[in-house]
Design a protein that fits this description.
heterotrimer, A mainly alpha (about 650), B alpha/beta (about 250), C alpha/beta (about 280), A: about 650 residues, mainly alpha, four-stranded parallel beta sheet, about 5% strand, elongated, C: about 280 residues, alpha/beta, 7 helices, 14 strands
Chain lengths: ~650, ~250, ~280
């Protein structure tokens, strides 16, 4: 009878797993090889070490107990099955180890503690991150886990009571204590059989249920973590336009277009909602929930017709555009789902094939392509900010400077952002750094087009800029804007452009460290620094801007800082899109004001504009200023007032 | 319907215009290029009319080799083929322009039913090429059209005059010049762009006759010599603004 | 003799053409046509006048209709036409200065042909008083191209063309809803709402609101441009304005070079403040 049960469980399990594997194999290709060392490290820290889960200590521990309990107790499944066949038999060697009996007890209890904690979180605390998750399914899974752990303890307890234990009672403290509930009699003999059958049958039912529920994550997640991105977070995977037209994959239009990594992502989702919690769009009332997006895609892959459009059938159209590509969701996800890649893939199809996107972004897309910058301004005016500053504009044929200062469109054309370039130029001159700008020959890096999904236009710019930089012999770039920085450093290598790229805060911080710039510090000036998503989260640049802040005043951190930073709202081409719901920038400004500081330091032209707009909307007493400007003021007195 | 759209490659000038050293052209060194805005709407309308009525559309330009970019852009939104009258980038006056366009039209295997132009080009703004073409071909011409519909070999055109619309109805074949606002040109899809790369361009190099409207040189107007009076910064300037409005008798 | 075709003898732009014609010296003959507009037929009437009177030059206003009729005249006579001129020096060849790019660039050209056909760029010169004698010509039968009906606009409110005050918003407004403050100010001043091309492309306002080279060309008493950078293509639409007030956060925006008055700052704060001040001034 055991054999029949095992066969049934195993068959149901296998049939479903075959279907899932087939879906993964049928999916579009993706490049996820190389960097073996990194992948092994990820498995160790994220899977075994439960690293991402422990970003939240309470729920993290809860899960760690259950996860490690599962690992440690795995052999008990076999032991139980052997025990069904022969009450006195057990696994060779391991079944006879007292320490293993101890571990069994301890971890079974930890599992139960974990389950109770999970139930407390779900039933009493009821966090918002579970909105939209299948709570019933979770309850069933927790019940099954509890049953398995409890039946194991009771089985051990009843065996001890019957004297079937091999080792002294004190090796199994919990089972030993429970064994006092049972007398050494016929009733206990029956219970012992009952407990082991319940244990095994529950496990086999769970086996069959596993691949049909979100508990599938226990298999998919480990694999998903292995295949997670090992390169920089800000880099998007390019599409290949060189293949014959019919073979070009224009992002994800239907379920059949998803790559195998995207399918695996969908299968790995546990509906925990940490991504939803981290999402700034979700936090400000937009429809987008990264969790619901992945769940929607999963349901479409598993149940939908392969040809139905993902947008709007699996994912509401609005939510695709709500995303600011800040990556907080990816950072929060314990199973390495890469939501931003999904969203960009959906955008790619909508923009490139269907020309379906928010109309207010159309001028930006047209302007980027025709005028080479998203503001549609004349490139001939690009270096106007540098007039009278003696900044060298690199002409074709001239020798390359040590540093090419890549100013960026926002900084060149926006009246608030350009002060950063003016300050940086003055500081670099003062420190004797050999630098030049491309001026009118610097076109948009293509970042806004790429984040909107127009990969075709982006690649045209990448190729053009790589050519210009190559002809100019540029090897080192200092980028003013984190988006340019990200694209130049992480994305242009895919197009043959390899440079040593630093952000302006990194170079300036180094100059201060080396004593080439000596700011006068105002210890009473409280400054709170807002981390740009593209600098901190996508590129791990956390220290240098803080060094600059500390060198001019007294730093005070916001609640969500460093890699936990809360987006300013401009990413994902949102600088050019309208925002529904509450404003992300106002939310962030509120957080800054709560620190009590009156200076809000930034390191990105988009953050400058968005947060300054936010301050004007909220009316808080906050001066939004770039770290370069702060440094310039501390180095040679206050900057001239605007308009002078 | 067989529709021909005529377009012109023009630079995107930005905030101020800079001339070449010889002052006979705009310095386009760092400028992007596009098709005149009225003409983009003409091309979009041609594509829509063909979608609705069947037939074929073609785009024609008189311009330098680089103007092929504009032809491909128009084909990317759905125009079927292109005719490129290739120049060396020199100025062609309206009569010469109209002349070669007429020749090119006469050389077509199938004469077009409808010839669409922008009301005037963004740069030279001579307002006369379409009318000259219509005359030479003996076709009726309606200008400044903001709405057009075709039924049974006739077109109904709404011409914008001040704030009203004047309605004309003429039989095809006809020449119609349109204005921006006629429609909202679609954003080209990438498959459309890729297909456009492979569509045929019929190129030829016409000879330029002597100009009768002969451009001698260009100059940037001196500006009204205005020195802006800054009334203030931010909302505090509001009283000063109202003061000005009161002086002008508007408040 | 200088023949001047006036599309409307009272209209400002027609009278500007008269000014330029008077500047050429010699006798001035002014004609007009009325009745149903039929461009080719009207042009034929003018051609008949030319053949009868043998003028040295023929001038007309550089309006859509003026340009259209004269283009027909030029085609019929196989003569060059210099459209939208700001100055004319007769001769063989004649020398004209005409506008390009809606007025942001000037072209000096020689015109080889007689008589000299010219249309006069709007607002290039002051308008003369209407000539004492204007003959009204009768057009002959038309070629089928004539106005069949006139459709008046359904919207209430002031039209851009007629408004004394136009308040316009550009990219800086940020959204369709952002135009509420612009509409409020326009309403308070009894004016019309305009916008730049970026706004129409973004889908925030219809093209009928667009002011610019390819939109509506306006000539209000005052043009209040909010959040508009001043691209030449936009300025071409508002150079007829008597006064220009620019509101922009960027003190170096090119619009300030063409403005009479400026306020530097965020329109979302400034425009409502102006509206509030107006209400205060009216004692509301």
């Amino acid at each position: 009878m055991l054999a029949a049960a095992i066969a049934a469980g195993a068959t149901l399990f296998t049939l479903r797993v075959r279907l899932l594997v087939a879906r993964v194999r049928a999916a579009a290709p993706a490049q996820r090889t190389g960097h073996l060392g990194r992948r092994v490290r990820n498995e160790a820290t994220i899977v075994l070490g439960q690293g991402k889960l422990l970003q939240r200590l309470g729920p993290g521990l809860m899960h760690t107990f259950i996860f490690w309990g599962f690992i440690v107790l795995l052999p008990t499944i076999v032991i139980a099955m052997i025990g069904i066949v022969d009450r006195r038999a057990t696994l060779p060697w391991l079944g006879h180890q007292g320490w293993y009996a101890l571990l069994d007890d301890v971890f079974a209890v930890l599992v139960l503690v974990g389950v109770i904690a999970a139930l407390y979180i779900r039933k009493v605390q009821r966090p918002r991150r579970f909105d939209g998750s299948h709570l019933g399914e979770a309850d069933l899974i927790l019940a099954l886990i509890a049953t398995i752990a409890t039946s194991l303890l009771l089985w051990h307890a009843s065996r001890i009571a019957l004297g079937l234990n091999e080792w002294p009672r004190h090796w199994s403290p919990v089972s030993g204590a429970l064994s006092h509930l049972f007398a050494r009699n016929q009733a206990t003999k029956v219970l012992e059989r009952a407990f082991v059958w319940v244990h095994v049958l529950t496990i086999l039912s769970f086996l069959a249920y596993l691949p049909r529920s979100k508990h599938l994550h226990i298999m998919a997640a480990a694999v998903n973590v292995w295949f997670a991105r090992t390169g920089p977070g800000g880099r998007l995977e390019p599409l290949d336009f060189e293949v014959p037209d019919e073979e070009i994959r224009f992002g994800a239009g239907t379920a059949a277009d998803l790559t195998w990594k995207e399918v695996l992502d969908a299968f790995s989702c546990t509906e925990c909602g940490r991504c939803q919690d981290a999402c700034p769009a979700n936090a400000t009332g937009k429809i987008l929930s990264p969790k619901l997006l992945i769940m929607g895609l999963r349901d479409q892959v598993l149940g939908g017709a392969p040809d139905t459009p993902l947008v709007p059938d699996a994912v509401p159209e609005e939510s695709v555009w709500d995303c600011v590509t800040c990556g907080a969701c990816v950072q929060a996800c314990p199973v390495s789902i890469e939501h931003v890649d999904h969203i960009v893939d959906l955008r790619r199809h909508l923009v490139m094939v269907e020309s379906r996107f928010p109309s207010e972004a159309e001028p930006m897309l047209r302007d980027v392509e025709r005028a080479s910058n998203p503001w549609g301004r004349a490139q001939s005016e690009r270096a106007d900010w540098a007039a009278e500053l003696g900044v060298r504009i690199l002409e074709p044929g001239e020798p390359a400077p040590e540093y090419l200062y890549w100013v960026g469109c926002a900084t060149s054309f926006d009246e608030r952002a350009r002060r950063t370039a003016q300050a940086t130029a003055k500081l670099l001159h003062r420190a004797g750094v050999d630098f030049a700008i491309l001026g009118p020959r610097e076109s948009c890096t293509g970042d806004p087009a790429r984040r909107m999904g127009n990969e075709y236009v982006f690649q045209a710019f990448a190729e053009q800029n790589v050519r210009v930089l190559g002809e100019a012999g540029v090897t080192k770039i200092v980028a003013n804007c984190p988006h340019c920085f990200n694209t130049l450093a992480n994305e242009y290598p895919d197009f043959g452009g390899r440079y040593e790229v630093v952000h302006h805060s990194e170079l300036l911080a180094r100059l201060v460290r080396e004593g080439r710039l000596a700011p006068a510090r105002q210890p009473e000036l409280a400054i709170t620094y807002h981390d740009s998503c593209y600098l901190a989260r996508h590129n791990d640049v956390l220290g240098p801007p803080r060094e600059l802040v500390a060198s001019v005043g007294q730093p005070v951190e916001m609640r969500r800082s460093g890699k936990e930073t809360f987006c300013c709202g401009a990413g994902g081409a949102h600088m050019w899109m309208e925002e529904r719901g509450r404003a992300i920038n106002a939310e962030r400004v509120g957080e800054a004001a709560a620190t009590g500081a009156q200076t809000l330091a930034v390191a990105c032209p988009f953050c400058t504009v968005m947060l300054d707009d936010g301050v004007q909307a909220t009316g808080d007493e906050l001066r939004v200023v770039d770290v370069a400007t702060l440094l310039a003021e501390a180095t040679d007195g206050p900057a001239p007032a605007e308009g002078e | 319907m067989n529709i021909l759209v005529c377009v012109k490659r023009v630079p995107l000038t930005g905030g101020k215009i800079v001339l070449t050293d010889d002052e006979r052209a705009i310095s386009t060194r760092h400028l992007g290029f596009t098709v005149s805005p009225h003409e983009e709407c003409a091309a979009e309308e041609a594509v829509r009319l063909v979608e609705h009525h069947g037939g074929e559309s073609a785009v024609l330009t008189l311009g330098p080799p680089e103007a092929e970019e504009q032809l491909r852009d128009m084909m990317a939104i759905g125009v079927d083929r292109a005719i490129h009258l290739v120049t060396g980038g020199e100025e062609w006056d309206p009569q010469a322009t109209a002349g070669v366009i007429v020749e090119a039209i006469r050389a077509q295997a199938q004469p077009p039913d409808l010839i669409l132009f922008g009301n005037e080009s963004a740069d030279a703004g001579n307002y006369q090429v379409p009318i000259r073409v219509a005359h030479a071909l003996g076709l009726p011409c309606v200008t400044g059209v903001k709405a057009i519909s075709a039924t049974d070999g006739r077109v109904r055109c709404e011409q914008e005059v001040e704030s009203r619309r004047d309605v004309y109805e003429v039989p095809l074949p006809a020449v119609v010049t349109v204005k921006e606002g006629l429609n909202l040109p679609r954003y080209p899809s990438v498959p459309g762009r890729l297909r456009a790369k492979r569509k045929p361009v019929d190129a030829s190099t016409p000879t330029r006759p002597e100009p009768r409207l002969e451009m001698v040189k260009l100059r940037v107007p001196p500006g009204a010599g205005k020195q802006v009076e800054v009334l203030g910064r931010g909302p505090e300037a509001a009283p000063a603004v109202v003061g000005v409005l009161q002086e002008l008798g508007l408040v | 003799m200088i023949l001047t075709f006036l599309t409307d003898p009272q209209d400002e732009i027609s009278r500007q053409a008269v000014t330029l014609a008077q500047g050429l010296g010699g006798d001035l003959e002014a004609v007009t046509l009325d009745g149903i507009y039929a461009p080719a037929a009207w042009a034929q009437a003018i051609v008949d006048e030319i053949q009868a009177g043998a003028p040295e030059a023929v001038l007309a206003p550089g309006t859509d209709r003026g340009n259209e009729v004269m283009a027909h005249v030029a085609a019929m006579l196989d003569l060059p036409l210099a459209a939208n001129c700001v100055s004319v020096i007769p001769g063989q060849p004649a020398s004209v200065t005409r506008i390009r790019w809606g007025g942001s660039l000037l072209e000096e050209a020689n015109v080889h042909g007689s008589p000299l056909l010219v249309t006069v760029a709007p607002h290039a010169v002051e308008a003369a008083p209407a000539p004492a004698e204007v003959r009204c010509l009768q057009p002959g039968p038309d070629d089928g191209v004539r106005v069949l009906e006139q459709v008046q606009p359904s919207s209430n409110g002031v039209s851009l063309i007629d408004a004394d005050v136009v308040v316009s918003g550009g990219r800086g407004v940020g959204s369709a809803e952002g135009f509420a403050v612009i509409e409020e100010l326009a309403a308070l001043l009894g004016g019309a709402v305009g916008c730049s091309r970026a706004v129409t492309s973004a889908g925030w306002r219809p093209h009928t609101d667009q002011v610019g080279q390819t939109g509506t060309k306006i000539s209000p008493e005052i043009y209040i441009a909010c959040g508009i950078s001043g691209a030449t293509q936009h300025m071409a639409g508002c150079k007829g304005a008597k006064k220009l007030l620019a509101i922009n956060p960027d003190g170096e925006a090119s619009i300030f070079a063409s403005a009479d008055y400026g306020v530097i700052g965020d329109l979302h704060e400034i425009v409502p403040a102006i509206s509030a001040e107006i209400r205060k001034a009216r004692g509301a």
